[in-house]
């Protein structure tokens, strides 16, 4: 499959995409696992499990990025600044030790997520962008906030363990987001293709909901922490 590339006339697709998927985005943010994370109450082992699930998803997504790098439509969205796999490896080594690859395993929800990534991200530029947008911009936008929450939760004495959430090569996350929105607005997709991409982003949020719901089911019963 391939998406039709029209003349790069400026559209309002980025705004349409955001408004058309806002409810799906908000639903993911409301899940117990993410609420626990953002409250600074997530334990290190639960955080490591989350990183492991992200590792499997990013492994497929970044393979697709390499495959799409020369594509006239999808290629401009590929950015080394947003590559997370090496940073996930650093954090997994920190939390789980040198044998971390033997410790992590994808959940059934992550397997379904990765299967969809393999299905649409390697030969459909719009599909790749839909999943790249959903995964990478979410981690970029929320990285600083989540890192701050996890520091409250774990308080690592050496300050390590947050490479995945640290975008040292991004001087301005707002600048990257604005550039990404400009690419969305000038990609040249027609109305039909835009609808397909919005539907795929909604599916991506649904698949991520399943991943985080599974992670939430593994959390121990919540015991309120005293605030001192």
TrEMBL record:
The keyword Nuclease does not apply. SUPFAM superfamilies: Heme oxygenase-like. The keyword Metal-binding applies. InterPro entries: Haem_Oase, Haem_Oase-like, Haem_Oase-like_multi-hlx. Pfam families: Heme_oxygenase. Keywords: Heme, Iron, Metal-binding. This is Biliverdin-producing heme oxygenase. It comes from Saccharopolyspora gregorii.
């Amino acid at each position: 499959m391939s998406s039709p590339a029209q003349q790069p006339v400026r559209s309002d697709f980025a705004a349409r995409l955001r408004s058309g998927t806002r409810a799906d985005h908000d639903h993911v943010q409301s899940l117990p696992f993410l609420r626990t994370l953002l409250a600074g109450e997530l334990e290190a082992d639960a955080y490591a499990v989350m990183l492991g699930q992200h590792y499997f998803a990013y492994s497929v997504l970044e393979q697709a990025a390499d495959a799409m790098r020369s594509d006239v439509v999808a290629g401009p969205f590929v950015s080394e600044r947003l590559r997370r796999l090496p940073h996930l490896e650093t954090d997994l080594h920190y939390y789980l030790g040198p044998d971390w690859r033997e410790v992590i395993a994808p959940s059934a929800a992550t397997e379904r997520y990765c299967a969809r990534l393999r299905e649409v991200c390697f030969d459909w530029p719009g599909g790749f962008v839909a999943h790249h947008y959903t995964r990478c911009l979410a981690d970029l936008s929320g990285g600083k906030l989540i890192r701050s929450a996890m520091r409250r939760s774990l308080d690592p004495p050496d300050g390590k363990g947050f490479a995945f959430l640290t975008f040292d090569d991004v001087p301005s996350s707002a600048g990257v987001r604005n550039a990404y929105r400009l690419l969305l607005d000038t990609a040249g997709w027609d109305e039909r293709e835009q609808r397909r991409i919005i539907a795929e982003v909604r599916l991506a949020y649904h698949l991520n909901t399943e991943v985080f719901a599974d992670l939430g089911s593994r959390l121990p019963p919540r015991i309120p922490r005293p605030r001192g």
